[in-house]
Specification:
Length: 436
């Protein structure tokens, strides 16, 4: 059953199909965190080099050389499906080759000693009393994950750990989710216990929601945990079933991420406000559509029939979500059939909807996207992530990627006076243990 027809079935209130064609709706939760090792030969040279440096730093800092584990957890880019995750909807992110590398070794005294190499900052605590560290805020992502793993009864051990990353901070590429997933996979490897990757994803999200205090959805942790090289991941954020969607070959097309360099201001308050507006939409629409639990259950036809019952601003927010879910479905079909043009058009429609209906873009994101729409080799471009700054995502013909980068850089600098950073990326595997 194709994704599109499944959505239609879903909207008609039918049961999700039990038997699926091979390769679709894998619903797999089979991989375990921290246990499987990847050999050096399969790693990209750069990851391997950085992994060795972080391991050496661990040994230099703490003097340990026995039982060292090295983990990577990637950042992500969302190709399409923005702000749909907390509406029980659909997303299509990819893990990228920008990652956090963490090296760790066990301690017998139940203490955790952390060193953030890039920030040259340390934080230590005892596993018997895990509380927030207001000075080393970065450590709360790790503390929260370890606390929740412990509360699940998992045998978390004390450890020394060093980490370093090249996921740009505050740029909307999910450096926080990468750090949480790195912490979880490291704890499993050091403590020699198995934890199902989807469970770990849920723990990481809960740590961010309840310990760090950011009300995010599940997309970022999920893709950092379960991404696959060369693939995007089509995720049903309600059931957590997912399907890997092959991306066009990187010899033909590149994923290019363009950083506006605007640190995402406003993002927490505006994000929470959007969540409330969506919930309000569901409450009102439920009077007419009693079966709905979230905006994901509202079909475009039902929405068209009832949208006039919503306050205008709530109607705009809901309209984005209803059609964005639809666009994710159509994108999956387009990518599966190699229809890059259609995918590009859907990316554009997504950006316009985020700009005009959901109102989470900003001047700089619009300038970057408009530059990309005119640039050589562009198949599609849109803002990505929560919005209000951060990055755009672009699908660009590989043979034109240098021209694309030069054009977009020059145009953005000319219009804003700011030099953007542009990252030409590959879709990579999710969090895992490395053999170095
Ligand atoms: C942030 C959140 C995600 C998701 C996106 C918007 O990245 O962490 O859960 O809601 O914004 O799509």
């Amino acid at each position: 059953m194709s994704a599109g027809s499944w959505l239609q079935a879903q909207q008609k209130g039918l049961e999700k199909p039990g038997a699926c064609a091979a390769g679709s709706w894998l619903g797999c939760t089979a991989s375990s965190a921290g246990q499987k090792r990847e050999t050096g030969g399969e790693l990209m040279a750069d990851t391997l080099r950085r992994a060795q440096q972080v391991r050496d730093k661990l040994i230099e800092t703490f003097g340990d050389s026995e039982e060292v584990v090295v983990i990577k957890a990637p950042g992500r880019v969302n190709l399409i499906g923005e702000h749909t995750d907390y509406n029980d909807g659909f997303v299509l992110p990819a893990a990228v080759d920008r990652e956090i590398i963490m090296a760790a070794s066990p301690r017998d005294d139940g203490e955790v000693h952390l060193y953030a190499l890039d920030l040259d900052s340390r934080s230590s605590f005892s596993l018997s009393s895990i509380v927030r560290d207001e000075k080393a805020g970065w450590s709360n992502y790790i503390r929260g994950v370890l606390l929740l793993l412990k509360e699940r009864g998992l045998p978390v051990r004390g450890m020394n750990a060093v980490f370093s990353g090249d996921v740009p901070l505050g740029a909307g590429m999910s450096s926080s989710a990468a750090l949480e997933m790195a912490a979880g996979v490291t704890a499993a490897a050091v403590g020699k216990f198995a934890v199902d990757m989807v469970e770990l994803v849920k723990i990481a999200q809960a740590a961010e929601n309840n310990f760090v205090g950011v009300n995010c959805g599940i997309m970022d942790q999920f893709i950092s945990g379960l991404g696959k090289k060369g693939h995007a991941l089509f995720l049903d954020c309600r059931s957590l079933e997912y399907e890997l969607v092959p991306l066009p070959s990187s010899d033909e097309y590149k994923i290019v991420i363009a950083n506006t360099m605007v640190k995402r201001g406003l993002v927490n308050s505006a994000y929470n406000e959007r969540r409330r507006q969506c919930e309000m939409g569901v409450e009102i629409l439920r009077q007419y559509l009693p079966a709905i639990k979230a905006l994901r259950d509202v079909s475009p036809a039902d929405f068209a029939e009832h949208k006039d019952k919503l306050p205008p601003i709530v109607a705009k927010r809901c309209e984005h979500i209803v059609y964005e879910n639809q666009r994710v479905m159509e994108s999956v079909t387009a990518l599966q059939t190699g229809d890059v043009d259609t995918f590009g058009k859907l990316m554009r429609a997504s950006h316009e909807s985020l700009r005009d209906l959901y109102e989470v873009s900003c001047k700089e994101l619009d300038i970057m996207v408009e530059a990309a729409w005119e640039a050589p080799g562009t198949c599609g471009a849109r803002m990505t992530g929560a919005g209000f700054g951060g990055c755009t995502v672009n699908l660009v013909r590989a043979d034109k990627v240098n021209d694309f980068v030069a054009f977009v850089k020059a145009r953005y600098a000319e219009k804003t006076g700011v030099e953007p950073e542009i990252y030409v990326c590959e879709a990579e595997d999710g969090a895992k243990r490395l053999e170095v």
